[in-house]
Amino acid sequence: MWTLDELVERVREALAAEYPGAPNGRVRDVPDRRAIRWYTTIGLVDRPLGMRGRTALYGPRHLQQLVAIKRWQAEGRSLSQIQADFVFLTPRDLTEASRVPEHLLADDAPASVPDVVHRPRFWADRPATQTDRPATQTDVRVADLPAVESRPVETAPVHGVTLGGGAILLLPRPVTDKDRADIAAAAAPLMSLLETRGLIDGSTS
Fold first, then answer.
1. What is the longest distance spanned by two Cα atoms in the chain?
2. Among the ranges given (8-17, 134-143, 193-202), the one the predictor scored with the smallest mean pLDDT
């Protein structure tokens, strides 16, 4: 895993050989630390793999994502177009789009880094069960509870749009890929405010 500065350097090396530069003068040829944090905030680049103290750590997929973004910007694609394309991008497609040399994808870090704290996957981790925690005086057996008539609960379907930083926008109707890209662009000021206030998980290094 790499620090943000090390990731920026690998992006520079990957683009140095054949990258023609973006046609729009306002777009930096190589993304800096601020740009990478912004890409992460809008969900264009994955969140860091974990933290070593206050330092965010990144891996090969982050490198491929950033290089692919800059190559596509050089072809004249906007960030909203790239966001829409990334939705359907398979790992193989990402490898082909980024064309990152194999030696830059190699992880130079040792296999085990003891002081790295990985972000919890709240959507996948199993919640604590009765046997995972000590019994307390407030524990009540199911058999001790009075019988309650079971009734189905009617709920409306909810559709989520990931905004980055752990923030998810919930909507009552499904959204299209264009909706997702437009929502992410429109939510940029809000995401910046939430990160400034410490209300979402920002990337720090």
1. 72
2. 134-143
In total, how many domains does the chain have?
1
Residue at 155 is within a domain = no
- pLDDT band of 136, cuts 50, 70, 90: very low
Give a yes or no: residue 82 inside a domain. Answer: yes
Instruction: Tell me if the pTM is above 0.70.
Output: no
The answer to whether residue 138 scores a pLDDT higher than 50 is no
* Residues of the domain holding 107: 4-119
